Amino acid sequence: MKQLYEDLWICTPEANANKIEPELMMHGFLLQHLRGNILISRADNPLDHDAIADSGGIIRHYLTHWHEAGPATRQLQQRFNSALYCHARALGHVSRYAEPDATFTKAEVHCGSFHVVPTPGHTPGSTSYLYASPYGKTYLFVGDTVTLSHHRWMTIRAAESNEHDLHQTLNFYRALRPDVIMMSSTVGHPGWQEVDLRQWLALLGEAEHNPRDLCLSQASNDGG
């Protein structure tokens, strides 16, 4: 686990060893909140679990979309007695691994300052999290809605993606003013990126015009 800012750490990247994207890395983030530590996305490495324990554990674990759920989700829930949160439309998939303690369907503010914002498109239950750190930077956790692949911004489309919803989400993002973008997966790039307003608007435009269709990638990989 690596410290990025005074109150934010990134988990050990998880390599996705497949022929489609051999350099694909998946990321999770530990946020030190005044009310207790919060985990966003995923943390599958047992050494990270020990580091979380050394930092005081976690009180809550938020998933940006159901693709992040896995065996470690239940392990974290049991070890730290932490509350698991996801969008209601991700519940069925997430429950295969762990039973969420609570779901949401609309924008909410948790713990007094942690903004939960449904941002459908990549999946119906995709959710972003916005947090204005008391140390000065505003963090936006975007999941897999936008990502970096070898310094190129793009959106990721899966079987359950909805192009109309994704377009609306990107327009919503344009009204936000984050300082740091936290991504749940990247290709050949770390899981975070500092931005100013000009860079933020430019990367959203680039991502919108560069969709990556995972279904087509899979078909090509299979020879179909």
TrEMBL record:
Residues 25-192 form the Metallo-beta-lactamase domain. This is Metallo-beta-lactamase domain-containing protein. It comes from the Bacteria. Signal peptide: none annotated.
